[in-house]
């Protein structure tokens, strides 16, 4: 997995502290290798923009042109183009993740919305991102997630609002590694990270017959 430290990944100054910076070492130490391997890391300061617009409007078409991809139209849908990924949150609501600095992205999307009904809001500080990956990642999530995560039902490119343990998250499966990204509210991220670390600990030992 690529380096996820603040400056290396985002170029942001080191004094900006992410919601889970204090657990970075514990998450690294919790990693399990081998056939039952699983790792956990924070991807801090991902740019996030909440977009609300009538999907049938001209404004939605302009926003899609700005993003370079259609806004997903169904529950669980995602679309990715260049440095943007859009998640369906509701019939007229999406969350857009940006690899680029979020300020200019917000400006471009607001320009696309123009004076039409809707909103474009920078919500980057609202959530952080946890990446859970490895052969045992699905089994770890299944300890506390009510969704059916079997590959025949939930696979790469799917993202839904659910809970893991008692924490509400946006759960996104990135690939069939499997790799998942979990987007909790920043104020609940500490609890979720500790819950996942505890759930991962089982896989350090041998598999029971």
Describe the fold and architecture.
This protein has a five-stranded antiparallel sheet. It has helices spanning 6-10, 24-29, 58-67, 102-113, 137-142, 189-200; strands spanning 39-43, 47-53, 78-81, 84-90, 93-98, 118-122, 129-133, 159-164, 167-175, 179-184. It is globular. By secondary structure, it is α+β, with helices and mostly antiparallel strands. Helix 3 packs antiparallel against helix 4 (102-113). The protein folds into two domains: 20-43 and 128-203, Gyrase A, domain 2, CATH 3.30.1360.120; 47-125, 2-Layer Sandwich (Alpha-Beta Plaits), CATH 3.30.70.1520.
| Structural class by SSE content | alpha+beta
Look up the CATH topology of the largest domain.
Gyrase A, domain 2
Helix percentage: 10-25%
For the record, the CATH architecture of the largest domain stands as: 2-Layer Sandwich
**Number of E strands:** 10
Shape: globular
Assembly type of the chains comes to single chain
- The whole-angstrom Rg is 18 Å
Average residue-wise pLDDT:
93
Strand fraction equals 25-35%
**Widest β-sheet, arrangement of strands:** 1-7-10-9-8
Q: Give the helices and strands as they follow along the chain.
A: HHEEHEEEHEEHEEEH
First and last CA, distance: 31 Å
Number of helical stretches of at least 4 residues: 6
**CATH class category name of the largest domain:** Alpha Beta
Total domains: 2
Per CATH, the superfamily of the largest domain is: Probable tRNA modification gtpase trme, domain 1
Low-confidence stretches: 1-6
């Amino acid at each position: 997995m690529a380096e996820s430290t603040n400056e290396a990944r985002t170029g942001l100054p080191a004094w900006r502290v992410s919601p889970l910076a204090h657990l970075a070492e514990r998450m690294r130490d919790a990693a399990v290798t081998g056939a039952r391997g699983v790792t956990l890391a924070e991807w801090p300061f991902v740019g996030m923009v909440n977009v609300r617009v009538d999907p049938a409007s001209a404004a939605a078409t302009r926003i899609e042109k700005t993003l370079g991809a259609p806004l997903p139209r169904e529950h669980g849908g995602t679309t990715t183009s260049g440095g943007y990924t859009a998640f369906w949150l509701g019939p007229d609501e999406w969350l857009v993740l940006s690899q680029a600095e979020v300020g200019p992205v917000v400006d471009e999307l607001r320009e696309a919305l123009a004076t039409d009904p809707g909103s474009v809001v920078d919500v980057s500080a609202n959530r952080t991102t946890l990446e859970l990956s490895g052969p045992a990642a699905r089994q770890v999530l299944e300890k506390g997630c009510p969704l059916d995560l079997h590959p025949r039902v939930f696979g790469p490119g799917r993202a839904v609002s659910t809970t893991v343990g008692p924490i509400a998250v946006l759960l996104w499966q990135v690939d069939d590694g499997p790799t998942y990204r979990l987007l909790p509210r920043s104020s609940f991220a500490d609890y979720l990270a500790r819950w996942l670390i505890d759930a991962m600990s089982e896989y350090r030992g041998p598999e029971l017959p």
